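Hi R.,

Here are the chain sequences for the assembly we discussed:
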Amino acid sequence: SQQGEEDPQALSIQEGENATMNCSYKTSINNLQWYRQNSGRGLVHLILIRSNEREKHSGRLRVTLDTSKKSSSLLITASRAADTASYFCAPQNTGFQKLVFGTGTRLLVSP
Amino acid sequence: NAGVMQNPRHLVRRRGQEARLRCSPMKGHSHVYWYRQLPEEGLKFMVYLQKENIIDESGMPKERFSAEFPKEGPSILRIQQVVRGDSAAYFCASSDGQGRETQYFGPGTRLLVL
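And here is the predicted structure of the full complex:
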């Protein structure tokens, strides 16, 4: 397994704006997952995108994957204060392996 | 379908005592992972277990830490002779091992060593 590196480390926006965070990794993958962690809570799984997919949507979330650049992005549209959290990506090169997390992107959405 | 359960949610121990953290995976899940999170850091993998087997313990400290996932009952992470540096949030995750790789996380146990 391998570690994803999220960028930026911190992001501050106003409610209603879009938030984009990026993830880079180093070797080939089977899938890449995005998780959210609210302060003091456990991680919540947001979305999984497989290596043969380029884009995936879930509600206000849009994830893209570019395997040639070894990067992924998470877009949150029309952000809300409740989206304030840390966001982590976790690339996997085979299933059922441990997830290796970076330090995440800390998103602050102000009302 | 209940999610991943962890207990206790908060645990206070004095240096030298033992800490036992429990994790009940989601119903039907046979894969359990333990992670540790220090303040202001990301989660660090500790150990991966299937029923009665340790699959990957590459993240476990060599001493004082052990984990099990018996045929019946929850997974247990055991820390003997705790030290202040063990203070952290410990998260358990589970997956179903049926080709779906998503790991579902519990709420965590916050261990404070005095």
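The interface with chain A takes residues 4, 31, 33, 35, 41-45, 48, 56, 58-59, 91, 93, 95, 97, 99, 101-108 of chain B (CB under 8 Å). The radius of gyration of chain B is 13 Å.

Let me know if anything looks off.

Best,
T.
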